[in-house]
Amino acid sequence: MRVHLVNPSHVSFGVGVITPRWLYVLASATPRSYGDPVLVDETLAPVNGAEIRAGDVVGIGIHSGNALRGYEVGRIARECGAHVIFGGIHTSLYPQEAFELGGASAVVKGDGDVVWASVLADCAKGAVQPVYEGGRIEPDQFLPARWDLMPPDSYMWASVQTVRGCPKHCSFCSVWRTDGQRPRQRASDVLLQEIVELRRMGFRFIALADDNFYPVTLEDLELAKRQVGQPRLSQLQDLREERFELMARLAELPPDTVFYTQITMEAAEDPEFLEAMRKARIRGALVGVESVTREGLKAIHKDFNSDGLSLVDRLRTFRQHGVHVLGSFIFGLPTDRPETFEATATLAAEADLTFAQFVMLTPFPGTVDFQRWEKSMESDSTRIAGFPLTRYWLIPQALRPKVYMSHPVMSDEEIRRRTQGVWDRFYSLQSIWKRSRCVKSLRSRLAFALISKLYRQMYANTGIATDSARGNRAVRWAQWLAKPCLRLFQGRPMPELQVPVGASEQVAWTSDKKDSTLVSL
Ligand code: SF4
Measuring CA to CA, which residue among 166, 168, 172, 165 is closest to residue 371? Predict the structure, then answer.
């Protein structure tokens, strides 16, 4: 019985930007007695059905964006006679779909790290159960990934998760409902071991793939202090302390190691935290700006963000502490107006953002927005390829609408066109070249331009373009740009590197100081 794990994707680029962490974590959860699992990340290359044999186990992890392709893979595997097991956020929300459309033998709901071994044991006995409840595991149960199974020269960034869950409750986001609002933070020891393993292999760019790297804000602490008996205060202080401990230990890694994470804008109010990030070389952060207007932020339950001039100030604060911001904006909120697009493009330029993404409001399953939208669509009889709009992830990619929630003053096409216009403006060669001043040498500036264009091709043109010719062209461009970009991110392997013991210890790394950054972000 061989175990296959598949990360489905309807487009393959040959090179991936970030390692799909779940694939390597589940590989780690696979007992060695079954041999090394066969790992297929379809963002690199599509699955080969000829390698799947009767009696094998095929584990497929899906989110709503790749569910349709996942179901295709499931049916292929089932035809080969394999046990087909679905997991991932989408499966937890819609387990029945995997049986009806994906040829599932079983589904895993919740975290798979612990329950996966039981699933495999049942498959081996021929007694697979239809549903396995993985629940929400505790931080000390999170498994380190099997990075030794990663194909060489395939990914630009490695990924490590330091905390799961987010205390916020944004209406467009499912994280707080699926991963929970209690931050489950991993201990710095296990994190450092995994990060050092990756650095030994030559990864010097590592994404801290967290739901929210800043789970305790200064305001949270203030509120906890005001509570009678302060029941939550020490818990929050401990969480915060652990963040600082982790960052202090990251700071001891070889100086060319660079991290990137996701964080809420409130961190801009916390200079101590930003300073620790700078020392830890957390050089980039995705910050969910979402909307530049107060009404827009209220509409999505994100009024802890700033708007207007104070928003520009807050975003610039990150940069002043050496943290480059990838600002994420949403278009199509009911409060948006035609002039919102122009205002957002201007703000993105003024706020010293290094990268930006402009996404169209999409009701993601598992979110509050989705619930509301689903209710409002009860009387809508539209069907595309036999599916209602409220099951849009099942509609074939080419027929899928780009905008789902009707807007009070703009048509779907206007929102799409204006969104594409903002991407075009932010990623024009002139704007990219201006932003490339954030790195020093000409070579680094050229590298910055290359990466900006790759980002644009992978995430904008392939998603927003309406005509398939433009979409296909974008994929070909991305495939072409990906290889040279990969080389820019690779560092020299450091097989001798030891895990730093603690802030007070001698730094235990061996490094050629000339092996410094190509792209010194
Ligand atoms: S969008 Fe970010 S801050 Fe809001 S709930 Fe999701 S992870 Fe938390």
Answer: 172
